[in-house]
């Protein structure tokens, strides 16, 4: 009886343990699925999708009693299938494919490993964790990706197929939870990014509003005061200083607005880059020539050493980049310092550096220099810039796909390095000043000095001739007609100044630029007698090449029209000079008639523009003496006057003056039009 | 430029004179040359008898302003907010703590016209705010409201 009872109990136990009846199994697997989904849906919180899948794998392993569990899915964007594992390390082997996944799902289950089949997913995982039986069940994902749940066991599992299927079905729910968490995380990131962008925009607007109001304050405040100044004949008498302040504030405002518009264009992706292969040296020489007066005013050395290569960039934007970097360097470098422009190939692009000997920038401020409206240093110097130059430069560089970096330490100057991607090709000309066939005459008695100059200049493509005495030099100049002359001041037969004077006096040689080379610094005297430049020995090779290039190459290709601008009013001079420079003219502006005559004598101009009401010279006398200059006899003279000229004056001007313009708001426009006409027609003063 | 540039000597010696009849002593704290020139021109040109001939002391930054305040009394402070060595509003904190001298009214001249910038100035305890750009009449009428009133 007892033994029967024991046998029955054992039989029931055996049935429950190894062949549980359907009702019991349903109850049990129903509980398992319930427990798993509860754990996953309520206990996870917002976790990364991967964490959710790991939690799922762990729950499945615990509930199924499998030795190892793997969740696999064919990912859309990355190779490999593994979403999560439980009871083992992730498998780091060769990436599996979706086809492998389909194959294992199609195989009869469970797959028994170790029968010499080809290496399938089941085989890979079983070897990885030492299992023998692998059951693969498809996981129905909402996205319809192929996915599977692998149960790996050392011994054949009693866990039934439909229980496993229930857990696999749960995978679909897990995918939704994972996706929800993924979306929540991304939403949180987007909200944070939007909040930061909104704050940046508010800060930018606040600074911009402030920066715009500063010049506006001067314009509105001073114009308001002007209205209240005493009147005479219907005009207000106002201090000239106020007018000047209003003008410069207006110009400052315009620069601000232009910079802001450019920044907005880049931000909106509306900046259309017209990328071309540009000659880097030409672009650099162009900018340095335009900024040299600023550097000279502060007595700064401006050294240029760029190879003869092309860079792929938009010409206008490259100009802006160079202009911002260089004018910044010049602005922040104290008197007597130096600014160096260098470039070389770097990786798949070109690295351009502008170094200065300025005060340097502290580490903490180095990233901020690219922020809008942030400026360092002396507030007095701040008025000079918009505070947008470097911010805009960085955007322009980035729009080219490039990078900008700053290297600096307080007291050690600053280097701004711009890397621009794209092909960097050698120019057909081998150097910055490369000028094949351009003839140079060196008038110098020391053969070593001649030899040194030859080693500098010949690689750049110049054809060199030399003369050891002043008279031989003048003779050589007349026969060779060089494109430029290098003149030593110390010569055996005659003074170098005398040679220069003879060159200037000879109509055939007058236009040849003369570069003085000397051991003594008499720069000022050199400039006064019309030397193109003055070099003190020992000569800086790159500066010599750059300056020669400015005169020789620029002169030979598209020479800028040279305008002599004479007016008693310095503000008007500045305004018109800037305007004409804007259309590419080389403008010499003077407000002293005596100086004007001196210049007309010593240099060649394509156009003379003069005001009629000069302080010290009688109306027409200046014009008359201008036209009487032998050097200026062919040069058109254009008169601008604020007053209506009477007929007597007009008749006196007749034959000497090409046009009389009235000084008004259209003057600049008319001048530009006249200049355009002048440069379009071949002028008699321009050489072949 | 490390010391306050006093264009006209602050009236430290005539403290006994009637504040209603002598010209006001004004401290102008502003880093931009052009804006200082504008305030000067406005104060010089005004026909308003209570402001004409004002003694103006200039400070280009906070430290110059503090030095000026330590050395002399003022009837009015015109204060820019964005100064090279910090926010002009910090000057107001120091003023409130002082007991040795009467606290002059402070008018903030600011290019920051956003509501939160105004709120910051008000919270710092300024007596009036003038947004840039301003014209002479704005500055004069605001200054008149804060200078000692003439005896009726």
Question: Characteristics of this structure?
Answer:
heterodimer; A: 688 residues; alpha/beta; 5-stranded antiparallel sheet; 24 strands; disordered C terminus; B: 152 residues; 6-stranded mixed sheet; two-stranded antiparallel ribbon; 5 helices; 8 strands
Short description:
The complex is a heterodimer of chains A (688) and B (152). Helices cover 48% and strands 18% of the residues of chain A.
Outline the structure in words:
The complex is a heterodimer of chains A (688) and B (152). Chain A is an alpha/beta fold and 688 residues long. Chain A has 21 helices and 24 strands. In chain A, helix 2 runs parallel beside helix 6 (161-228) and helix 13 packs parallel to helix 14. The longest helix of chain A is centred in the first third of the chain and has 68 residues, at 161-228. Chain B contains 5 helices and 8 strands. Chain B has helices spanning 33-45, 62-71, 90-97, 115-123, 136-146, and strands at residues 5-6, 25-29, 55-59, 76-80, 82-83, 86-87, 106-110, 128-131. In chain B, helix 1 (33-45) links the parallel strand 2 and strand 3. The radius of gyration of chain B is 14 Å and the shape is globular. In chain B, 42% of the residues are buried.
How many extended strands of chain B?
8
Oligomer: heterodimer
Low-confidence stretches of chain B: 1-16
Q: Write the H/E string of chain B, N to C.
A: EEHEHEEEHEHEH
State the strand order across the main sheet of chain A.
2-1-5-4-3
Helical content class of chain A: 40-55%
Radius of gyration of chain B: 14 Å
Secondary-structure-derived class of chain B: alpha/beta
Task: Figure out the total of helices of chain B.
Answer: 5
Distance between the termini of chain B: 43 Å
Which protein chains are joined by the largest interface, and how many residues does each one contribute? Answer: A-B, 27 and 28 residues
- The helix fraction of chain B, in percent, is 25-40%
Strand content of chain A: 15-25%
Form type of chain B: globular
How many E-type strands of chain A? 24
Q: Give the structural class of chain A.
A: alpha/beta
Mean pLDDT of chain A: 78
Largest sheet of chain B: 6 strands, mixed
Shape of chain A: elongated
- Strand order of the biggest β-sheet of chain B: 1-3-2-4-7-8
Tell me the distance between the termini of chain A.
134 Å
